[in-house]
């Protein structure tokens, strides 16, 4: 088995046995968006406590690449601090997937990443707003 086959096996496993799929009741932050090229949707829910992402779940539908990357990304993010989570880049998720992607497939791979960043930054924006108006 060459390395590209190995990555394909790993992607299939994350797709067939999704990690962190579901919703969080009363999430600290949540965001939903779709892939404009196909209309598939992903929602990400975050539970943030003590500056840490205690829980993260994703829901929605999409192709194998979008679901597998969401599964991998949520596993990678869980228990990271806010600062660590802010520093996660698109290269991290592309490295986890480990296969060459371009065009529509690249958008599939990055959908959950984009939604996660929106959820995180909307939490940070809200926290900043609370700080400004509470003082
Ligand atoms: Fe829709 Fe991949 S084809 S997310």
Describe this structure in words.
The chain is an alpha+beta fold. The chain contains five helices and three strands. It has helices spanning 3-16, 64-77, 82-86, 90-97, 103-134; strands at 29-34, 41-49, 52-61. Strands 1-2-3 form a three-stranded antiparallel sheet, covered by helices on one side. It is elongated and about 60 Å long. Residues 35, 38, 40, 62-63, 65-66, 108, 111 line the site of FE2/S2 (inorganic) cluster.
Summarize the entry for a quick read:
With 135 residues, the chain is of the alpha+beta class. 54% of the residues lie in helices and 19% in strands.
Characteristic key phrases:
5 helices; alpha+beta; 135 residues; binds FE2/S2 (inorganic) cluster; elongated
Query: What topology, given as strand order, has the largest sheet?
Result: 1-2-3
Distinct helical segment count? 5
Strand/helix succession: HEEEHHHH
Structural class, by secondary structure, is alpha+beta
DSSP strand content: 15-25%
Please tell me what the overall shape is.
elongated
DSSP strand count: 3
Question: How large is the radius of gyration?
Answer: 15 Å
As residue ranges, the low-confidence spans are: none
C-alpha end-to-end distance: 60 Å
Share of helix, binned? 40-55%
> Could you say which small molecules are bound to this protein?
FE2/S2 (inorganic) cluster
Average pLDDT score: 93
- What about the largest sheet? 3 strands, antiparallel
């Amino acid at each position: 088995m060459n390395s590209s086959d190995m990555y394909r096996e790993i992607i299939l496993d994350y797709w067939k046995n999704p990690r962190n799929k579901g919703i969080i009741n009363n999430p600290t932050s949540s965001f939903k968006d779709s892939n404009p090229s196909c209309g598939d949707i992903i929602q990400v829910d975050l539970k943030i406590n003590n500056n840490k992402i205690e829980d993260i779940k994703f829901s929605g539908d999409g192709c194998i690449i979008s679901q597998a990357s969401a599964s991998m990304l949520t596993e990678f993010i869980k228990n990271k601090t806010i600062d660590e989570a802010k520093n996660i880049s698109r290269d991290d998720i592309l490295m986890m997937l480990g296969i060459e992607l371009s065009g529509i497939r690249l958008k599939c791979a990055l959908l959950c990443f984009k939604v996660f960043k929106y959820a995180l930054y909307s939490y940070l924006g809200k926290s900043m707003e609370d700080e400004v108006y509470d003082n």
